[in-house]
Amino acid sequence: MPLRPDDGAYIPQIERMRAAGVDVVSLNVGFGPQSLQDHLRMLASFRRWFAQRKDHYVLVRSPADIDGAKAAGKLAIAFDIEGMGPLDEGDHGVVELFSDLGVRWMSVAYNRNNAVGGGCYDDDPGLSAFGAEVLAEMKRVGMVVCCSHTGHRTTREVIAKAGNPVIFSHSNPSGVYNHTRNIGDDLMHACAENGGVIGINGIGPFLSEGDASAQTLVRHIDYAVQLVGPGHVGIGLDYVFDREELAEYLRTMRETFPDDSTYSRPTTMVPPEALSEITQGLCDLGYDDDAVLKILGGNWRRIAQSVWRT
Fold it and tell me: Is 197 exposed, middle or buried (0-12, 13-18, 19+ CB in 10 A)?
């Protein structure tokens, strides 16, 4: 959703997710260099909007909230943060505040290095001592650690230190398409061996040469499943509803987004409405019901049950 506090014009489009058959959605509340204040303002704005519509939405604190929302025909809403930039001032106590406000996962970096660790587009220094403290705090409060957008050295050190399953919320296999934002077989193995989940995203430049089709996304899912098994693969579309806001970010945030063809052309994306086509694609490949249900959300549900504190 757009990161504009108190601008609810786009938020009703979340109903596209419900119409596509989705039960729970994680909304980003900030990324990269955005400030702590920016993140808190977006959390306040989103929480207010959904709390005013309790007949249709549930703000998630526990896995049971997801189950209850589904049973009541409501859409469950959680929040996430991409990159630990808001912690750069050194106060890992903010982690508990974010958790209390509904942030269920937070990624280590967003393309560039920060005080916690390295980004995938930077010279990766690895996990810092402060970063190790942040991981310990995330484990204490029950927040999932994500390594999408994170440097590979830092990722390996995070998986070794986290003390919980670590996820890639939206990262694709380099073995299908070699891109800086994608991850190699070694990181996928390390994630799975630690009990984590690799979420396949629907962003065209990370799927192929801009081919944002459900069939191509299924090809990435199948590669990951053949590598680590169906118990460690999920879907994390990373869909952006306001394309104009995205284009503005890509144009003005040159320190965050490299000046290459990936970020200088219109971004294609697999839309929520493709979920049924993705499901059919998995069935056509011979996946049984158990594997499909894990990929469609069961694996994320397992991570929540394992890590969240209620």
Answer: buried
